[in-house]
Amino acid sequence: MASTPVTLPAGPKGLPVIGSLLDFQYRPLRFFRELEQHYGRMATVYVGKQPVLFCFRPEHIRYFLTENPRNFVKPGNANDTGLKLFLGEGLLTIDGDHHRQQRRLVQPAFHKLRVDSYASTMTRYAQETIASWRPGSVVNMASEMQALTLRIITKTLFNVDSIKQTKQLGHAFDAVISSPPRRSVITSRINFPLATERAREEGSRTIDTFIYNLIKQRRESDSDTGDVLSMLLQAQKHEPESMTDTQIHDHILTFVAAGHETAQNTLSWTFYLLSQHPHVRAKLLAEIQTVLAGRVPTLEDLPNMPYLEGVINESWRFYPPAWRQARMAREDFELDGQRIPAGTITILSQWVLHNLPDVWGDPENFRPERWDKRNAQSIPQGAYFPFGLGPRICIGMTFAQLETKLLLATILQSYVPQLKPRAHIVFQPLVTLRPKYGMPMRLEENNTIIPV
Predict the structure, then answer these.
(1) I need a surface site. Which of 128, 206, 245, 426 has the fewest CB within 10 A?
(2) What molecular functions are annotated in GO for this chain (predicted)?
(3) Is residue 381 situated within a structural domain?
């Protein structure tokens, strides 16, 4: 029997020479959803001469991420481009046996029991942030949440607590994340302003200095505090060939970058959504007040606040922190009756799949009720994947779920942030989905019980 001929699905023609590069650069969010609306299950887009396949169905997500993950690698990993230029050999960027071996080494640090032990640190730091706020003042909630989540991640995973260093790291990460590496698969043809390039390089140096100093100080003290850094250094002692200083650096960088970026964006967008949906906010506040009655939330309180979990899940559906991911095929593969050649880059977009009308019914509505136990069971696997799926699912997912719920419940007991009137909220879709100009919010005290 003859094999299916190698083909690619239909897609937009694009412009001569550059193809759809400008769509990727200037309007990726709208462009991605338009592709699904116009072409259906799959579409092929060209960036220059490079074909990029888009897959838009939950079964496609399962095919790539859970059923055949070994045939697909992250495209930047093959030629040291994209995120690998910044994160190096961290868990987000390595593949294959190397990824599996390194993930096993660090997995104990993210075991549920270990993560649960961080709860009191999370709520204590949230209380300290609240204590620095003043009723009626306007704050950039994105910056406030970045400082808070950076402080939490550096303390819980690396036993470091320095507000000054946290601020420096925050500025450095802003500079690096806001200007992706020039040599990425999609952005290799995009020219960034020289000042932006310089800021990114300076930010990278600041982050590298912090991490290598951290490694040096811990090694000199020869102390084992049971955190991630101690675990990495112990692994290096016992298996020096499997864990170099550079790899330790890259793991730390990955955990700090991904650990705070996901949480800060989740909280910023959730406060924004709550300010735009007062009926949801009222129901959430009523649940928090009923369960906590002014107490600081604990780990044991969370199962009693299902609507809080629904709000977070719906926020991740509405504004997924990681809004797309890419894979490159090692070998030819067949999908939907079409044979796709090896080397093809495929984009899987949470931004699109979390918004499919045939899956969600009313995806344009912010409705946490869709996550109650009866409704959540009807969501097909692959339709919702804010942390990815399969063997590469985010190792810090449990950490992020705990942190966002505890911080949201703690803050809302003291303040109900409201979006500043006429605030200009714009998406910045880079590695994550950030508010481009921040999130200016007025801090209104929560000193009354609000009925549902």
Answers:
(1) 426
(2) heme binding; iron ion binding; monooxygenase activity; oxidoreductase activity, acting on paired donors, with incorporation or reduction of molecular oxygen
(3) no
